[in-house]
Protein: DNA ligase (ATP)
Amino acid sequence: MKRFAALFDLLDRTTRTSAKVAALADYFRTAPEEDRVWTIGLLSGRRPKRAVNTTELRSWAAEASGLPVWLAEEVHPIVGDLAETISLLLPEPSQTSDRTLDGWMRELVSLTGRPAEVRRAAILDAWDRLSTPERFLFNKLITGGFRMGVSQGLMTRALAQATGVDEAVLAHRLMGDWKPSRIGFETLIGAHDPEADASKPYPFALASPVEEVAALGDPADWLAEWKWDGIRGQLVNRAGAFALWSRGEELVTDRFPDLAPLRDFLPPGLVIDAEVLAWGGEGPLPFAALQKRIGRLTVPKKILAEAPAHLLAYDLLEENGEDLRAAPLAHRRARLEAVLSALPPGVPISPSPLVAFDDWETLGEIRATAREKIAEGLMLKRASSPYFVGRKRGDWWKWKLDPYTVDAVMLYAQQGAGRRATLFTDFTFGVRDGDDLVPFTKAYSGLTDAEFRQITDWVRKNTLERFGPVRRVPPELVFELAFEGIQASPRHKSGIALRFPRMVRWRKDKPAAEIDTLESLRELLAATGGAAP
Structure:
């Protein structure tokens, strides 16, 4: 654990990419193999299931520090991070420990489902053996809030330097459903086991946002298609394996039983990059229809009938077991269409249609109709591009529509977390409903630190009521909020919910009397295919 804490400290003290890669590469060369596997797992999002909840942690930390629970809870909003709060409250350890990261992680895994008294004893013993920096990391691992400031791509680059294995090859080997507690380092990065790799997806190619498409050059070099509003995924159909993976490397095959018939119709040895959409007749349904299925382990028959799943296929990554990713996109696309054209009608997969255009101005006019297609905008892909790993600027671009906007007034404020723990950054906003103000969304991003500091000073001077960490303020500060979509929501008092709301402007020029209304949001909801509550 000491070595892992030292690595975390090195990474936390630098913003230079080269320094982070060098520190990680050195760690991957010298750390115990089991610790390397856990580090790879943690940096690629494979965190163990939480064994202890935050209420228990606060209670046990108060007990260990000799403080009343209420005081420990009051300190948390000031520090802004529970793991850091606990590490600072605890007394100095009375013991030491040479246990490795692997040892501590296996203990955490073993605590899942155990009685509270057993978990309490184990956590108190751990706190009494770890130094303050080690406790901080241990607490982060307990709560599931571990972040190291290193992307998976950066980690893969460092691992390639340490092992001599090609970075793209490593990126593929680290995909799939593997657990750090059940695999060795050499097995993880070593040669492929065809049987074990049968269901593995490829690393996803990602696009970057573009604003000025004319700078992309000759339109003849590009393919355009709609940017669908669904779940990006890879369908794997190899001998002995049929799997659907989300972009977040989550195996979601069982969530979409209506796609299972594809196993019988698609030829083996295929991997297809696609978008999972809820389908209605001849086209996609709004994302809200698909959202009813997300998070459900079992989808009721009623929802299966109302929002059947369909795949709109973008790309063919493998055919007859041959990796096609290095071939030009135009070639891969032609092979994809040939495969799908041979399928019988009615199967839940079809190619995502290409958008024909001769010049960028025409394409801009087509893009303006994206919402009529239940799309977010357009994707632009260079016809000669390979299927690369991660986000490589230059070949794939997303040209999204401008977001929806609404002017709203702040009703409640709450302090942020981490480096913004001393600032009020999390706000609840309201719109007018007749003579009343109705809260309808929360947002916490989009402003500068300087603006957050100004707002914090204002909140402290104008607080009307406190509800724990939340403060009610006079409805005076107006903000322009941007959002990607709107849907009906019976769980909210306003009857609506926004997708990805964020603040884009502090409207110091606008009084609260001129903010938007709940009725205007209901009209937008109806116009976008929803039903007014």
Notes: The chain has a mean pLDDT of 88.
